[in-house]
Amino acid sequence: MENKQSPLGYISFSIFAWIVGLLIFFPIFWMVLTSFKTELEAVSIPPSFISFDWTLENYAEVQERSNYFKFAMNSIILAVGSTLVGLVFAVTCAWAMAFNPTKRTKDALLWMLSTKMMPPVGVLVPIYLVFRDWGLLDTRFGLIMVLFLINLPIMVWMLYTYFKEIPTDILEAARMDGATLPKEIIFVLLPMAVPGIASTMLLNVILAWNEAFWTLNLTTSDAAPLTAFIASYSSPEGLFWAKLSAASTLAVAPILVIGWFSQKQLVRGLTFGAVK
Amino acid sequence: MGAIRLEKVKKSFGTLDVIPGVDLDINDGEFVVFVGPSGCGKSTLLRLIAGLEDVTDGKILIDGTDVANEAPAKRGLSMVFQSYALYPHMTVYNNIAFGLKMAGESKDVIDQKVQSAAKILNLTDYLERRPGALSGGQRQRVAIGRAIVRNPAAFLFDEPLSNLDAALRVNMRLEITGLHQELKTTMIYVTHDQVEAMTMADKIVVLQAGRVEQVGKPMDLYNNPANKFVAGFIGSPKMNFLGGELAAKHNCHEIGIRPEHLTVSTESGVIAATVKIAEHLGAETYLHVEADGLGPMTVRATGEMPLGEHDKIFLTPEQDRIHRFDAHGLALGPS
């Protein structure tokens, strides 16, 4: 096959892509680097790159001062919990929209997405009041509900585009074979949509893990996840860059590792339906 | 048992009447073919019988019971889809067994039924494969296997052969006919291919725009079409329709003559014509001609004919094979 791109163009595009990639990666790299410095070196100008005294004392101190694992456990429960609850609603919702569409299905989808465009702070007061009155403040259950609801539109959209690609014939065949609706979904639809469901779950776990607005505003200690753990290091007594970096590194590490190993799945999920 | 009766079955999508009201009787054990051009409603009618679409009005009786509001599985019918619609994540064995599992059959019963269906359809060696690893013909056989094991009151086929290549299609046609002779179960078969309809059916139902144009045995439809539409749709190449003086001579608006009912001569005949294109198939020759004062016609002559472009010929219709139609396109019967 003839390569339409000239070698020069190819090289310059590659260099450009690398620069963009490094720019995006640099803050994370700098954060990890800073977490191994002493507080003094962390703020020194000019900053030192590699030639500093590598130390683990920040990590030890961070663990000593606050219980990392408690926060991490909350993060896991919130991310996984909201994803599982969301999946139950999103699968049924996407099934209805993909296989039994009406004239208004597209409108409903767009409306769902439009709720994501509203700044969350706009509903902070009502939601806070509801949480206060129902005793949901600083509870995992309350946060799971909020995280599940704010990410539901994205889950429905992703699953909808996936389900659209599944031939209706196969579901009808299952119906002819005597499968009831739940069985049709569990034994036929879901196994065929495994890649789509996996990437939807993955993305939702990442979104829920990184969500900071609601987790910071609605928790204090019991249900506080890693976002609150990081925030606790930017205290009014003054910034501790190295400890903050260590805390942040600990907070993003799990999700970064998951993301790294599943990037293929994730990219496929996000671009599914774009190219047939 | 599998006698199916449709009473004033109607289907509308919004204000559009796709099926304005169909009455039809299908006897137990009959092989019925729904045939018609694309968009004539034949697939919709089949899906109404299957229960995959809800009827807007009317009754669907299977062995005397109205099932119009029953779920598909409750109707005791099996369906074979055009796209095969196999479960891609299951092995052939599990594809065939799925319906039995849903019905809650025991493992032994399932195994015995799957094995015997696989034997009938020559699939025994492929039971552990996934559909993706099968050829088109094998996939179609799996789809049929899935239909057989449920021991249905009737089989519904929705254009099952249109995804296969020509040679395989002829084979599968014979296999399905053979299967019908063996099982003696009612079969309803939808196709747009009139050759499939003619060769397989006990009874053909010709549909156009959701209406039944004619119901009858293949040769009845061929010999005595009820109207111009059926006359033109059944038979290949298409029937020639001629108006003018020739029709007036037969006391009708238009006459129809099938290409195979015209005798070709280079010396004399009723209609003078000029050959435009001659298609030599060996066993027969198709002549596309321009008849003087009558327009284009098609002739199907047996054997080889040493004719080519611009040759002058004469055509003589077989008198007792002329079909007469009135101004509304309805058949008038012999003159």
From TrEMBL, chain A:
Alphabetical list of InterPro entries matching this protein: BP-dep_ABC_trans_perm, MetI-like, MetI-like_sf
Membrane topology summary: Multi-pass membrane protein
Keywords: Cell membrane, Membrane, Transmembrane, Transmembrane helix, Transport
Places the protein is found: Cell membrane
Domain ABC transmembrane type-1: 72-262
A Pfam short name: BPD_transp_1
UniProt entry tagged with the keyword Transmembrane helix: yes
Biological processes, Gene Ontology terms: transmembrane transport
Transmembrane region(s): 7-30, 76-97, 109-131, 143-163, 184-209, 240-261
PANTHER family: INNER MEMBRANE ABC TRANSPORTER PERMEASE PROTEIN YCJP, MALTOSE TRANSPORT SYSTEM PERMEASE-RELATED
Family to which this protein belongs: Belongs to the binding-protein-dependent transport system permease family.
Name of the featured protein: Mannitol ABC transporter permease
TrEMBL record, chain B:
Pfam hit, one: ABC_tran
A GO term from the CC aspect: ATP-binding cassette (ABC) transporter complex, substrate-binding subunit-containing
Domain ABC transporter: 4-234
SMART domains named among the record's database cross-references: AAA
Keywords assigned by UniProt, alphabetized: ATP-binding, Nucleotide-binding, Transport
InterPro entries the UniProt entry points to: AAA+_ATPase, ABC_transporter-like_ATP-bd, ABC_transporter-like_CS, ABC_transpr_MalK-like, ABC_transpr_MalK/UgpC-like, Mo/tungstate-bd_C_term_dom, NA-bd_OB-fold, P-loop_NTPase
CDD domains named among the record's database cross-references: ABC_MalK_N
One example GO MF annotation: ATP binding
Family: Belongs to the ABC transporter superfamily.
Protein name (record): Glycerol-3-phosphate ABC transporter ATPase
Lineage, highest ranks first: Bacteria, Pseudomonadati, Pseudomonadota, Alphaproteobacteria, Rhodospirillales
